[in-house]
Write a structure and sequence with these properties.
Helix content: over 70%
Shape: rod-shaped
Distance between the termini: 116 Å
Oligomer: single chain
Order of helices and strands: HHHHHHH
Number of strands: 0
Strand content: under 5%
Largest sheet: none
Radius of gyration: 64 Å
Number of helices: 7
């Protein structure tokens, strides 16, 4: 029994496993002694029961198997830990070196990003200023365009009215109805044009003389000269109307463009 116990204990690897085996052996040895002491009284029934020595051996074998499995598992954990200890320091050193190598690039990128941010903030402030200036310019341009459109509407309306009145006067005088013409509102428009338009002194005096006379007696030699002056006045106003219309279209295109 002692030899068998020592052989089983010596097959266990490591101090931890051996300590556990020795403690277990003490317990089993006590059990063996008790079994041996009681064996003499039971000798006659050995064929009917299990041999106590065999029972102890079987228990030791079971313990040996369990301890070997635990030892194998602990050895695997130990190997893994040692592997980590061997490679972990190298991996950590590599990571630190990589971080140190990358640090200048990261610092440079950060500085560049900071500079870009400052430039963007400056540009944004300038854009805000430019936007305010543009809005003010748009307001001024809109006010000017509205003013120009108003002036054009009035001037073009006046030209159209005066051109129509001059054309009517030419038709009536050419038909020998100069006297009746002088009694119409159209004659009052022509009188105003004679005063305000750029005419020669002779033409102005002739028109004034014609417009100041009373009821006429049909067509007179003077009527041909009067219609000639009126046609000249009408042509001048039509040309002026064409000029201001062209100017208005250009101003409108510039504003909308």
């Amino acid at each position: 029994l002692k030899l068998t116990v020592w052989q089983h204990a010596s097959n266990v690897a490591g101090p931890r496993e051996f300590s556990l085996t020795m403690a277990s052996l003490r317990v089993l040895a006590a059990a063996c002694l008790a079994a041996t002491a009681s064996g003499a009284g039971l000798r006659g029934r050995t064929e009917l029961t299990v041999n106590p020595i065999r029972r102890v051996v079987t228990m030791l074998q079971g313990m040996q198997t369990k301890i070997q499995e635990e030892g194998k598992r602990d050895e695997e954990l130990y190997d893994k830990f040692m592997c980590y200890c061997k490679t972990g320091a190298s991996d950590l050193a590599t990571s630190v070196q990589a971080a140190e190598t990358k640090m200048p690039a990261v610092t440079s990128s950060l500085q560049e990003t900071t500079a870009q941010k400052a430039q963007l903030e400056t540009d944004l402030a300038q854009h805000k200023t430019d936007r305010v200036a543009a809005e003010d310019a748009i307001k001024e341009a809109t006010a000017l365009r509205e003013k120009e459109a108003g002036v054009f509407a009035k001037d073009s309306g006046d030209y159209k009215t005066n051109i129509a009145a001059t054309g009517k006067a030419i038709d009536l005088i050419s038909k020998g109805a100069g006297g009746s013409f002088l009694q119409t509102n159209t004659a009052a428009i022509v009188r105003s044009l004679t005063i305000n338009m750029d005419l020669s002194s002779a033409d102005r005096d002739m028109m004034s003389s014609f417009l100041s006379q009373g009821q006429g007696q049909g067509y007179t030699p003077q009527s041909g000269q009067i219609t000639g002056i009126l046609k000249q006045m009408k042509d001048t106003m039509e040309a002026d109307l064409a000029d201001i219309t062209k100017t208005e279209e250009e101003s409108k295109a510039t504003y909308e463009g």
